[in-house]
């Protein structure tokens, strides 16, 4: 019988249970994927603790890579044995076997391993829509990117450099600063030791940044607003420190007629065609070696709780994967 991580109540990592389960049979447009590697992401914590709604009891997780094990009667684009990856669809990726709609799957080329795909798909598609769709950079721009040594940030440093964008990354240690610069960050700011606002002014000759990317949320909101250039854009795409609330829109006028967006992957990869086109661009860069995914932590599936504790405490670098 396959195993999975499940929860029957919201709370901390202790609510996660490792148990046998019986996956549902694939519906007409569904598939079974035999997971070979599973991605660990901050959004999994949001579902676990109740920030995002979840019908309990439930499995957990949204990202994985493996092989198609069974297909529904109306699935024609995938066959048993196909290499696939996914990062959207129903919760339940923390499992040996996952049943999900075929529209959520993307083909996985041989040049990209299961571990690479599980570590990079959600984070890489996030960077794709941030830099390629929201940013639409021409090259030469200077942007601020919080948490530049994390899973998303590690890919953003590399992709920004490929686009000719000068990325200033905030980090929490000298080690993480060195890592971000090695990956392509133009400059780094250690927020534990340096004044982020002052350093951004210094690095941009007082001009600030036309775009600021913020996945931290509550703790960095005010800092981010102060780093956006006049008529610039603040992209708030995560809540690692807690959600931003009580926003006074008048502050956008006071700070220089700023724009703010709160995007999600589902808002950009909103059709199977767009999802697969975005994934194809990401996989081409991974397969050619232009993008490197650093899998710094690997845990057996049964250790998902420990892996989430480390992620929430910002004790990780790069990407973390679970192995069934």
UniProtKB/TrEMBL annotation:
The keyword Secreted does not apply. One of its GO terms (cellular component) is cytosol. NCBIfam families: PRK10754.1 (NF008024). PROSITE patterns: QOR_ZETA_CRYSTAL (PS01162). Its EC number is 1.6.5.5. Residues 11-322 form the Enoyl reductase (ER) domain. Gene3D superfamilies: Medium-chain alcohol dehydrogenases, catalytic domain (3.90.180.10), NAD(P)-binding Rossmann-like Domain (3.40.50.720). PANTHER family: QUINONE OXIDOREDUCTASE PIG3-RELATED, QUINONE OXIDOREDUCTASE-RELATED. It comes from the Bacteria. It catalyses: 2 a quinone + NADPH + H(+) = 2 a 1,4-benzosemiquinone + NADP(+). Belongs to the zinc-containing alcohol dehydrogenase family. Quinone oxidoreductase subfamily. Keywords: NADP, Oxidoreductase. The lineage of its organism: Bacteria, Pseudomonadati, Pseudomonadota, Gammaproteobacteria, Pseudomonadales. This is NADPH:quinone reductase. The keyword Oxidoreductase applies. Pfam families: ADH_N, ADH_zinc_N. GO terms for molecular function: mRNA 3'-UTR AU-rich region binding; NADPH binding; quinone reductase (NADPH) activity; zinc ion binding.
């Amino acid at each position: 019988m396959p195993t999975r991580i499940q929860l029957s109540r919201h709370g901390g990592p202790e609510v996660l249970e490792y148990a046998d389960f019986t996956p549902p049979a694939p519906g007409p447009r569904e598939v079974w994927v035999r997971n070979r590697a599973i991605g660990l992401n901050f959004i999994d914590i949001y579902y676990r603790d109740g920030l995002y709604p979840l019908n309990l009891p439930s499995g957990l997780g949204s990202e994985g890579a493996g092989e198609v094990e069974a297909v529904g009667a109306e699935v024609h684009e995938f066959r048993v044995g196909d290499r696939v990856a996914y990062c959207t669809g129903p919760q339940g990726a923390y499992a040996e076997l996952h049943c999900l709609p075929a529209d959520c799957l993307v083909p996985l080329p041989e040049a990209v391993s299961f571990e690479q795909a599980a570590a990079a798909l959600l984070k890489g598609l996030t960077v794709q829509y941030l830099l390629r769709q929201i940013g639409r950079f021409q090259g030469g721009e200077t942007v601020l990117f919080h948490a530049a040594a994390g899973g998303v940030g590690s890919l953003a440093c590399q992709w920004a450099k490929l686009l000719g964008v000068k990325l200033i990354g905030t980090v929490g240690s000298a080690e993480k600063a060195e890592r971000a610069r090695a990956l392509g960050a133009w400059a780094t700011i250690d927020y534990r030791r340096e004044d982020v606002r002052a350093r951004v002014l210094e690095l941009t000759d007082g001009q600030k940044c036309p775009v600021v990317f913020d996945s931290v949320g509550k703790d960095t909101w005010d800092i981010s607003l102060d780093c956006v250039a006049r008529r610039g854009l603040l992209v708030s795409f995560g809540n690692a420190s807690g959600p931003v609330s009580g926003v006074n829109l008048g502050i956008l006028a006071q700070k220089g007629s700023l724009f703010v967006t709160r995007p999600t992957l589902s808002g950009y990869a909103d059709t199977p065609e767009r999802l697969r086109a975005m994934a194809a661009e990401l996989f081409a860069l991974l397969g050619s070696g232009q993008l490197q995914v650093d899998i710094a932590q690997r845990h057996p599936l049964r250790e998902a709780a420990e892996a989430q504790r480390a992620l929430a405490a910002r004790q990780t670098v790069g990407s973390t994967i679970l192995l069934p």
